[in-house]
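INFO batch 0412 | record 1 of 1 | parsing
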Amino acid sequence: MFKNYLKIALRRFWRQRTFSIINVLGLSTGLAISMVMLVSMRYQYSFDSFHTNADNLYKLGLEYKLNNENVKSYTCAGIWGEEIQNNYPEVIMKSRLKLASELLFTSFDASGKIDKKYVESNGVGVDSTFFQIFSFPLALGKADKVLNKPYSIVLAEEFANKYFGNENPIGKTITINNKYNFKVTGVLEKLPILS
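INFO prediction complete | emitting tokens
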């Protein structure tokens, strides 16, 4: 019986080739687009969902008029964080974030000689409260203590391995731009894979 249905379908497909090809292409294109949209939406809705307080995390943005056009911006002056925390009791804690690119990182060996020098991009400067707000997993260090002191730095695992190999980097110094000495106080684990 199934053989007969298949024969009839193939005969119809062959007789009306153009119409059948248009239908098959339309159906496959629609399915492909739907799958891409589903995967994209799943990624967007699961992004940063590993944080324990993900439902209570907000990003401050500004909307203003410039030359009679509405402009939306997700960058704003650091003073806005202070203002919002002081004027809105709902805001428990805030953290500022500043992206930095093209920084020269220098590590030193035990004798104080330059060991390794690399220009790094994708650095991020944050407040001391950052690891108390966000649940980024730390391989070394405690979230509430890693950024307590000025000139503290938390390195990603791959950077810690790049500069210090298998040695424990905690307490070691990294110089940035031949000017600022930062003490390594923590190592960030690889981020969880988004589900």
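INFO post-check: Residues 95-188 form one domain.
INFO record closed
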